[in-house]
Amino acid sequence: MNKKIKRNILLNPGPATTSDSVKYAQVIPDICHRESDFVEVLAKVRKDLLKIVNADENYYSSVLFSGSGTLCIDSVLSSLINKNEIALIINNGNYSNRAVHVCQYYNIPYVELKYPDNLLPSLLEVEEALIDNPNISLVYATHHETGTGILNPIKEIGRLAHKYGKIFAVDTTSSFAMIPIDIKEDNIDFLMSSGQKGVMAMAGISFIIGKTEEIEKSEFYPKRSYYCNLFRQYDFFKKKGQLHFTPPIQIIYALNQALDEIFEETLEKKYQRHKQAFDELYKGVKELGFKFYVDKPINSGLLLSIYYQDDKKFSFEKLYDYCYKKGFIIYPEKVIKADTFRLSVFGTITKEDIKDFLEVFKEALALMQKK
Ligand SMILES: *Cc1c(COP(=O)(O)O)cnc(C)c1O
Questions:
Q1: How far is the CA of 66 from the centre of ligand 1 (A)?
Q2: How close is the Cα of 245 to the center of ligand 1, in Å?
Q3: For atom 12 of ligand 1, which residue has the closest CA?
Q4: What is the DSSP string of 157-177?
Q5: pLDDT tens-digit readout, 241-260
Q6: Per-residue model confidence (pLDDT) at position 1
Q7: From ligand 1's centre to the CA of 77, what distance in Å?
Q8: What is d(CA 127, CA 132) in angstroms, rounded to the nearest whole number?
Q9: Are residues 299 and 148 in contact, defined by beta-carbon separation less than 8 angstroms?
Q10: 20 to 30 A from 252, CA-CA: which of 25, 180, 196, 246?
């Protein structure tokens, strides 16, 4: 019998709260990753991931990598830029900034369009950059900037990329399976995400979904990474149905279970559940007088970046510690300059969990006033 496990509510932006059945899916007899039972699980997981973004398997492939989400940013940028070609990075936050760093580490030439992290990029400037730099071959953007909660207009950016014959790569790590994405309709050629966020599984496995034709074209592009090369990993899947090197087997079983649970819940109901939890959170935090870093119309509906209260008695550390003791995890690390903290509604959490959280949150604020 599986024991019930203490349920912590993770309001940090990943890893996320998982179901007990996903946790227990990792407890399996020891198995070698080259066995056919495991290869079948991999094939199913890869198909399920395609389904989430309505990707036609005749045109798109899903490629898994062992590692956290950043590995996929690394793979896409290090694998898909040919000699004499450059990347255009649209940067309005911490995660796009990571893409800039990847380009710098590998000496990949790039043009950066940089914006304040609480504003949307200018489509006009994106188009200008595409006209001014005909050697751009890949346009890169982040869908949901998890550092702030801003949601970028990927469909429009993708349309511009395609208008000028470029490929469009999007970091959907924190929107995949949480916001509807249709890979073709949204003009996406490559997207990246990871097990511990929208799919409600474990950290340690990440994936890229991309145009098969473009991956095949990249076979002889400059090789900048051995482990992260996209064509190499894709080719191994194509020939053997497996990851090139030892994968986190148990974590992939958890991912498989989590995907089954998503389709059981249905994507539509899952999107609604996140939305209802977010609406409850937004209303509750706003009623307490907090101000938000990103305006609501450009917010993802998944995460709030909240200014500290303008009150000497407010202490983020006390708030964090009190919530932690009560089983609610808020994220202790800031990735932007402003004094803010983040609350998000990833994972298996519901509107009722948020109501419970708001009670604890209010208790914590009341305690600060007493001292
Ligand atoms: C979580 C996240 C990543 C990956 O971060 P890791 O720490 O490598 O898992 C990348 N992009 C975005 C937008 C994210 O939210």
A1: 14
A2: 22
A3: 173
A4: HHHHHHHTT-EEEEE-TTTTT
A5: 999 999 999 999 999 999 99
A6: 57
A7: 15
A8: 9
A9: no
A10: 180
Which pLDDT tens digit goes with each residue over 142-198? Answer: 999 999 999 999 999 999 999 999 999 999 999 999 999 999 999 999 999 999 999
Pocket lining: 118 vs ligand 1, CB cutoff 6 Å:
no
* Whole-model pTM over 0.70: yes
Which secondary-structure segment (H or E) carries 75?
helix 70-79
Which atom belonging to ligand 1 lies closest to the Cα atom of 172? 13
d(CA 147, CA 335): 6
Task: Please give the Cα distance from 71 to 98 (Å, whole number).
Answer: 11
Backbone angles phi, psi at 145, to 5 degrees: -75, 105
First vs last C-alpha separation in the chain? 46
Taking phi over 0 as left and psi of -120 to 50 as alpha, with beta for the rest, 101 belongs to alpha
Strands (E), 143-223: 144-145, 150-151, 167-171, 190-194, 205-211
Q: Please write the tens of the pLDDT for every residue from 53-72.
A: 999 999 999 999 999 999 99
Comparing C-alpha atoms, which of 366, 368, 354, 359 is closest to residue 9?
354
17 token code pair: 């709260």
180, 271 Cβ separation under 8 angstroms: yes
- pLDDT band (50, 70, 90) for residue 332: confident
Ligand 1 contact via 140 beta carbon (within 6 Å): no
Contact 71, 208 (CB under 8 A): no
Q: Which residues have CB under 8 Å from 350's CB, separation 6+?
A: 273, 276, 277
DSSP β-bridge partners for residue 307: 340
Tokens of 45: 């997981």
Query: Rounded to the nearest whole angstrom, what is the distance from the C-alpha of residue 330 to the centroid of ligand 1?
Result: 17
